[in-house]
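Thread title: Can someone regenerate the structure for this chain?

I was given the following input by a collaborator and told the matching structure tokens would be attached. They weren't. Posting the sequence so someone can regenerate them.
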Amino acid sequence: MTLTRDGGSLFSANMAGTLRLIVYLAIASVLMVLDHRGHWMGKVRYGAAIVVEPLYHLAGLPASGFRAARVAFADRRKLTEENKQLRVDLLLANARLNHMAAVSRQNKRLKKLLDTRRQLGMNVQLARVIDIDLGAFSHRLTLNTGAHQGVKVGQVVIDAHGIMGQVTQVLPGTCTVMLITDPDHAIPVTDTRTGLRTVAHGSHESGQLSLTTIPVSADVRVGDKLVSSGLGGRFPPGFPVATITHVEPQLSGMFLTARAKPSADMQRADEVLLLRDLAPPVGPPAPASVDGPPRALAPDAVGSSSTSARRSR
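Best answer:
Regenerated them for you:
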């Protein structure tokens, strides 16, 4: 037997390790047999896994949080872009819808104008309104037709509802129309209910006509329809002009004052008609111009006749 310096056996430490290994192997064999027969180790592993599982979740929280934040940011950006695109699509759809509604209204107005043209059986010209001035001292329209299209000063302008005014200025490509509501404008009218003839003047009130020369004894009521009388030869007779909305006596007590709303749609008119057929004059005929005595009574004629008479003798 080999001895060490301290007097112990050289193989005593190795023998102790070998014995421990044998004991461990025996315990492991026993545990394997017991696990194979009673499945006890599975239960132990299951319990240990339950105890260790929260540690796995705790260790994975930083990575899960990072992934969740990245997904949330990506989803938020995607939702923001989709929301922006949806707002653009909504605005575009509303614009298209409004445009279609405007086109539908314009088509209806044009249909009314064409129906009016067929009903009138007159020579008319379609024009588009490009500017409108409804100030306190001037009510005018500017149309996209002028001298190149045959427009002349004095032509009557109407829409599907009634008379709007008359052309006062003509340029090569445009013309200016004075509306019947202009303070400087006047139009002869007739009350369709009573046949009363009077004159409707424009007023400083936007969209109103004023009638200031109605006799006190005249039968004028709110709701009476006024049409053009044709007097003066400028406006053709029978066209709708306005509807009386208010009647009251003047302070002097000599006349009645009435206000009327024009039949034509002044503020929303986009297209109008210009009458090319001038109204026939209504009233006494114009006096004949006197240029001198008839040719049969002229001095030269008398002299020539007497000379010819002497020659015949």
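The mean pLDDT is 78.
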